[in-house]
Task: structure prediction
Amino acid sequence: MRSIKGKNSIYKIIRKLGSGGFAEVLLAMSKDKLVIIKLPKEDELARRLIKEEAITLEELSKPFPHDNIVAFIEWIPYLSALVEEYIPGYTLDKAFSSRRATQNDAIRIALGILSALEKIHSFGIVHGDIKPDNIILPKPLHPVLIDLGIARAIGGRSMAGTPGWSALEFMKGEVSPEADIYSIGVLLLFLISGIDPESSIGPQDIPKRISGHLRYVLEKALSSNPWERFGSAKEMAIALMGAKIPARSKPRIIVQGKIISLSDKLTFGRVKRQGGTGKADVSLQEIGSHRALPPGPPIGWAEIAKVGTEYWISDKGVLGGLWIYEGSWKKILDHPLKNGQLISFGIRRRGNYLLPYVPARIYLR
Ligand SMILES: Nc1ncnc2c1ncn2[C@@H]1O[C@H](COP(=O)(O)OP(=O)(O)O)[C@@H](O)[C@H]1O
Ligand SMILES: [Mg+2]
Result:
């Protein structure tokens, strides 16, 4: 194939850059710029996966592309091909194959990817495959994240992962933002000390010479319990910059990356113009993706309240119901909350999967 016809352009194929499990990656020229075309291998699963990647990347490119995430260009239906911006430069595995980054440079690179993750997580998505060959450096210390091939909705089921780079719970199927936080911990160690693990690592693998706040950040990010890591990309970024992060003892709920302190009683609902009561303490629309909640008739709200020493959550008529994740999603009405518990306001079905509309995690200590 010499050229591929898209909606807005004819792409002249220059050469094949690589070939992964599901797709060939081609370098091509459109009118005036280089692009990448991901072309699925000849099977239905490959076509479906590339299409999912395209849908995710298109969504993430709105309202405009993020500086640290490869930009979507178009989806070509008749070939099931994804066209995206070409990022010049080496991937991190090549850029750092025989040298180490200084601690400051490693932190700068990690901060770029954390900024990308803030956006990705706020859309209710987990990248799931943060590792050096999926990050390109077009300019020194300016990383761009590519390959949303295994990205999944929070609370969905992961398909795969990379041993050593993916958090253990992600390898077992659980999808939560903290999986990406873990991989950033591994990435920092790779940049600073050259470690490229083949199986799961933890705080004990941090070299002795790393101390101070960087050690603290790494120990936390590499915890085996997801809820002992940072609750959000932003929190990890703040800690990496050396600032003191807020006291960790206060109970809180993190809804799509936003940290909300739990008071004795807190209500979650829709804003009035969306058909809600307009009286909720936390308006779910104002958090994360506006498309996260289904359009529909007025809904009630959910309430988290302190009962004795426990926090309970109650469904007061959330459209789509209130759900907790315990190996699988379960619908609940009134339920005590555990530290680290994943919940969702509403849920939808995609094929065999239940996908949360507005996922959140509870932190009680
Ligand atoms: N947008 C891009 N710009 C430049 N190189 C890219 C781009 N996308 C992919 N590549 C190159 O192709 C390789 C494979 O692409 P990737 O999207 O990671 O697919 P795979 O699922 O096969 O890992 C990358 O590691 C990178 O070297
Ligand atoms: Mg890749």
User: Anything to note?
Assistant: Residues 349 and 355 are 6 Å apart (CA to CA).
